[in-house]
Amino acid sequence: MDAILQVENLTTSFLTSNGEVQAVRGVSFSVGKGEILGIVGESGSGKSVTSMSILRLLADTARIKDGSILFEGEDLTKVSKKKLREIRGNKISMIFQDPMSSLNPLIPVGKQVSEMIKIHHPKMGKEERKAQVMELFAKVRIPEPEKRYHSFPHEFSGGMRQRVMIAMALANKPELLIADEPTTALDVTIQDQILRQLRELDKEYGASIIFITHDLGVVAELCDRVLVMYGGLIMEEARIEDIFERPGHPYTMGLLHSIPDVEQEKSERLEPIPGSPPDMTNPPAGCPFAPRCSYARKVCAGSLPDFVEVGEGHRTRCFLQYEDAPADEHNPFRGGNR
Ligand SMILES: Nc1ncnc2c1ncn2[C@@H]1O[C@H](COP(=O)(O)OP(=O)(O)OP(=O)(O)O)[C@@H](O)[C@H]1O
Ligand SMILES: [Mg+2]
């Protein structure tokens, strides 16, 4: 599959009074044309910093210390701010978790979407732009688009505001849409509707999507492929069916045990992974998950495991997957109990 985005060894830190927060520590991945790539992981694993690095929307204290982000032959870590503004909201757009923080409360929503088109198509007439906004509102199923065009953000429910954000993100038919937990604040029914729309829009426009969430259930519904992040690293990468059928990392197994199983009784208790994520000002030298991993051995704390290929397009960072790892009952990948 042709890659639209290629991230190589991305390393992003924050310089704070407590020291350097090593938020993203050498992350490499690509996004195929028309592909929906999920990024999952617990809070603080580096998902947002990875995605914000792509469009350089990071706080002033952030530094991209190493790596490259190739998009259409250009390295986004090096292009000028002007060039980046041309790309943002046009070829690459982003949807954030909280639509209220990205919408201007004083401007009617239709006008805000229209302005987004105007920035990148200054010659287009006002009427044509308005017609396009109507079409977008209809596409994301905002009822009575003509009337809603003139409404202000506070007159919309959370779900409707999120649809406005999606309409705005799609206004210029982006080649890549980055959605950072766009449905977390919404109730399950609305979340389902929005996911269905994203999937339809992906088919219709052929756009690629990076979808960030801490919910593997959502990933299962929407994505083609997934990256599992922890401690600023990719721990596992796999096609969607493989991650559920053959999780290749104890951390992924832990995440899978903490999602509700739709086929189980509702009373089924979820098991969150015990323990808490590492302090990223002083990340452990070894596998960052080792202190919480019930399969961890001595070797795991010593140094960081390299990636091991465990299947087609399936790689994982775990010593227990090494060829010379002992195959005993304590190795979930070699005969042990999962
Ligand atoms: N502005 C900042 N200054 C200092 N540290 C930051 C800043 N933003 C993020 N971090 C740190 O970078 C690390 C990665 O954060 P990030 O926001 O990418 O996590 P996340 O995976 O998106 O989590 P969540 O699921 O909560 O959104 C965390 O340790 C976080 O505390
Ligand atoms: Mg985040």
Automatic annotation (TrEMBL):
Signal peptide: none annotated. GO terms for biological process: peptide transport. InterPro entries: AAA+_ATPase (IPR003593), ABC_Ni/Peptide_Import (IPR050388), ABC_transporter-like_ATP-bd (IPR003439), ABC_transporter-like_CS (IPR017871), Oligopep_ABC_C (IPR013563), P-loop_NTPase (IPR027417). SUPFAM superfamilies: P-loop containing nucleoside triphosphate hydrolases. Its main location: membrane. GO terms for molecular function: ATP binding; ATP hydrolysis activity. The keyword Magnesium does not apply. GO terms for cellular component: plasma membrane. It is found in: Cell membrane. It is a peripheral membrane protein. It comes from the Bacteria. The keyword Transferase does not apply. PROSITE patterns: ABC_TRANSPORTER_1, ABC_TRANSPORTER_2. Keywords: ATP-binding, Cell membrane, Membrane, Nucleotide-binding, Transport. Residues 5-256 form the ABC transporter domain. Belongs to the ABC transporter superfamily. This is Oligopeptide transport ATP-binding protein OppD. The gene is oppD_7.
